[in-house]
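4.2 Preliminary Data

To establish feasibility before requesting continued support, the project team ran the inverse folding procedure on a target of 611 residues. The structure was first converted into the token representation described in Section 3, and no sequence information of any kind was made available to the design step. The complete token record follows.
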């Protein structure tokens, strides 16, 4: 039996409740060694991982890792929220009784760390000193060193974050066991994986993966699922899959903050890291706060909604990241940043990395290049042409501080006041460039009816949305009715309410399919209009589904768009909207216990469309 106390003493981990929790799980998983880590251990852990060939060098201060080929993404089917109360079951949270789930997880984890090290990762999911700090402390126990390297980049890691808690029992208890990835039946009826958040016990038990949100328990298991549940139970805050940016108008000296949700593959990271278009670059400065999670609360001093990004880093999708789509991200992963790339293509000889969309064509000199599975491209038989080199969910992991336009106040414990909350999906028709919503219930209703378009027949009916309320579908941790009521309550308590808006960068021409709006940097233009609308500087045109810009209200200096295309993206297609309302009705009926205010908002919009 290992002497746990010796290691906990060495690391200065003094919280008796954390010590007890570590000891009780060590008894279950039975590791050979135990090691408490902090950010100061990063360099040593990198050296050890390189020596053990778990990661490879990818240039100066850059690293590369491959995951097991059967373990490359979050699994929604295997992700479960468990509590003691069946009323927590919603349409999306995959609720199971906790007294059924816990013994199953303990069984799978028993003895699973024999021969391995159990890393103890104490962390904080908030800037230190935040009013929400009491919900932010956690400890992840993991058997995987690469997961530790990721956690050090994605969360604030160190014993100081759990030693002196106001309530020493108030930390999230996370246990991550990788399991035998070769033999877990991933994706089969006999799938052995379980990713369980026991929300009413603030316990997270993940078994059967070492990838992303399946394994970095601070990020979405704690930062979204657990935090959403805590925010609701306490009544204090919302935890959402939102990006968060700041926009400064140098001419007026005013500073604005915008947060918002976008289903995956809708360009959320690109938007969060956006630079202003050249013609507006002198006047406006855009700052990055976060690309994936925001916690929102009402501040009693000024009655405004304040947001923090609880994360410490970015776990960004590599695919299609390039000088045009996201120059900020490329600068953030440059040499010397400590970036860890996962499942991109890697060159054994030059230590370069590459992914689809990094350059229009893959490297022509194939020598040394291996795909994400480790196969030499030159020996693949397709000359590198047929199968992708990088996995579509390949990632870069880097701390926020390395993002060149990171906001000065990103660690401000208070957070930043929110002016606008936006939602956006990938929609080829119907959704205009931007429509603003000033009524709170209609704004929340809009978030609840957010969706991403089904892209091919297998995913659903063409033109019909896969609804993804607030972009939280994979992260819901209690019933949607209560979730909507909590939104109405928190935003309703603000005395200075943010404006809501729905945005869409992806309208296409029905004939030739070209995108009507150039997107990327130019996306700042509709956001500026939205902020001007909130300030009363423009008035827009009221439509049944919100306020759209009059064309002369948008600053379009230097934008390549035809008059006809502009007309289309600023116009409401009433026929298509009536169709959508019917789909929405069905969608809302599937969300149990929605508040009356949401149904009334729905009926108001439907009636306005029929006028
Ligand atoms: C997402 O899938 O929305 C992510 C990545 O942010 S993961 O942390 O793996 O969930
Ligand atoms: Mn995400």
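Position-by-position output of the design step:
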């Amino acid at each position: 039996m290992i002497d746990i106390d010796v290691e906990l003493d060495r690391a200065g981990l003094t919280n008796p409740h954390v010590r007890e929790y570590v000891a009780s799980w060590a008894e279950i998983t039975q590791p050979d060694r135990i090691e408490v880590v902090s950010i100061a251990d990063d360099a040593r852990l990198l050296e050890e991982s390189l020596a053990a060939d778990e990661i490879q060098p990818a240039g100066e201060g850059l690293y590369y890792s491959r995951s097991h080929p059967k373990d490359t993404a979050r699994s929604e089917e295997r992700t479960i929220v468990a509590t003691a109360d069946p009323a927590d079951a919603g349409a999306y949270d995959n609720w199971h009784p906790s007294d059924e789930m816990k013994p199953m997880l303990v069984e799978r984890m028993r003895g699973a760390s024999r021969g391995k090290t159990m890393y103890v990762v104490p962390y904080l999911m908030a800037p230190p000193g935040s009013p929400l700090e009491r919900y932010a402390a956690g400890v992840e126990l993991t058997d995987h060193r690469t997961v530790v390297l990721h956690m050090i980049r994605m969360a604030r890691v160190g014993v100081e974050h759990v030693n002196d808690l106001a309530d020493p029992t108030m930390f999230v208890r996370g246990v991550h066991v990788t399991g035998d990835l070769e033999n877990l039946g991933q994706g089969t009826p006999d799938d052995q994986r379980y990713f369980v958040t026991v929300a009413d016990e603030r316990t997270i038990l993940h078994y059967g993966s070492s990838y992303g949100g399946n394994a970095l328990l601070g990020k979405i298991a704690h930062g979204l699922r657990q935090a959403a549940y805590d925010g609701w139970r306490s009544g204090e805050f919302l935890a959402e899959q939102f990006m968060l940016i700041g926009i400064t108008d140098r001419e007026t000296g005013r500073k604005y903050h915008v947060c918002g949700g976008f289903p995956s593959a809708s360009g959320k990271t690109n938007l969060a890291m956006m630079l202003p278009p050249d013609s507006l670059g002198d006047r406006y400065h855009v700052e990055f706060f976060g690309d994936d999670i925001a916690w929102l609360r009402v501040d009693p001093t000024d009655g405004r909604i304040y947001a923090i990004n609880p994360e410490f880093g970015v776990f960004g999708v590599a695919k299609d990241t390039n000088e045009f789509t996201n120059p900020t991200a490329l600068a953030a992963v440059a040499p010397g940043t400590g970036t860890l790339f996962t499942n991109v293509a890697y060159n054994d000889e030059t230590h370069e990395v590459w992914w689809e969309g990094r350059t229009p064509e893959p490297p022509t000199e194939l020598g040394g290049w291996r795909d994400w599975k480790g196969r030499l491209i030159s020996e693949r038989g397709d000359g590198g042409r047929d199968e992708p080199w990088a996995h579509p969910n390949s990632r870069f992991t880097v701390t926020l501080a390395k993002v060149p336009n990171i906001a000065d106040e990103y660690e401000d414990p208070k957070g930043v006041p929110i002016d606008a909350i936006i939602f956006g999906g990938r929609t080829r028709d119907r959704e205009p460039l931007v429509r603003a919503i000033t009524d709170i219930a209609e704004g929340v209703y809009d978030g609840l009816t957010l969706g991403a378009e089904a892209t091919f027949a297998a995913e659903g009916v063409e033109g019909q949305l896969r609804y993804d309320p607030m972009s939280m579908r994979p992260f819901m941790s209690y019933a949607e009715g209560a979730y909507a009521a909590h939104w109405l309550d928190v935003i309703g308590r603000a005395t200075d309410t943010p404006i809501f808006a729905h945005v869409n960068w992806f309208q296409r021409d029905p004939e030739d399919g070209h995108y009507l709006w150039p997107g990327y940097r130019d996306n700042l233009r509709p956001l500026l209009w939205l902020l001007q609308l909130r300030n009363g500087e423009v008035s827009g045109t009221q439509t049944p589904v919100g306020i759209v810009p009059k064309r002369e209200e948008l600053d379009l200096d230097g934008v390549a768009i035809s008059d006809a295309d502009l007309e289309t993206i600023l116009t409401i297609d009433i026929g298509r909207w009536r169709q959508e309302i019917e789909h929405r009705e069905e969608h809302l009926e599937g969300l149990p216990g929605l508040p009356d205010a949401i149904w009334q908002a729905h009926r108001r919009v439907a009636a306005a469309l029929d006028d």
